[in-house]
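Q: I'm writing a short explainer about RNA-binding protein 8A for a general audience and would like to include a description of its predicted shape. Could you first generate the structure from this sequence?
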Amino acid sequence: MADFLEIDDVEGIEMDEEGEEEGDAGIALLKEKANKRKGRGFDDKIHREELEYEGIEDEDDRDPGPQRSVEGWILFVTSINEEAQEEDLIEKFSEFGEIKNIHLNLDRRTGFLKGYALIEYNLYKEALSAKEALDGTEILGQTIQVDWCFVTGPKKTTKRRSHKK
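A: Of course. Here's the predicted structure. Afterward I'll give you a sentence or two in plain language.
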């Protein structure tokens, strides 16, 4: 990792013929004018604000809502009873379509369910109907919440940082 030293208003600093400053006053003035920057992305010729980056999709055009994962539509089911088994969830959620994948996270110490599950459907309409129908229902006497695992948030506004000079 490189360090860069950027000096503003070089004309205001007097140097002698060898390029060295005159005394302690010159050093203090040099320290005032210097901006030390650390890390990647600082180059003398290219400034970070001028760079344009490529993206997969234009996020500004998308509306907030569910987002498809690489393989399918994933539901995030929370507040599941710790004694629930995979079969209990498959029984409830398979009514709305073929479950492509189900993931239950178990507590290492107790061996019980941690209270959430990820359920994946291949089709959006199957996942949507399961979400709408099963959100707020009960499994083993405990009310569950069903929501999308991946969602696109509200449109972002970029804020530029102002540099102190």
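A: For your explainer, you could say: The radius of gyration is 29 Å.
Q: Perfect, that's easy to follow.
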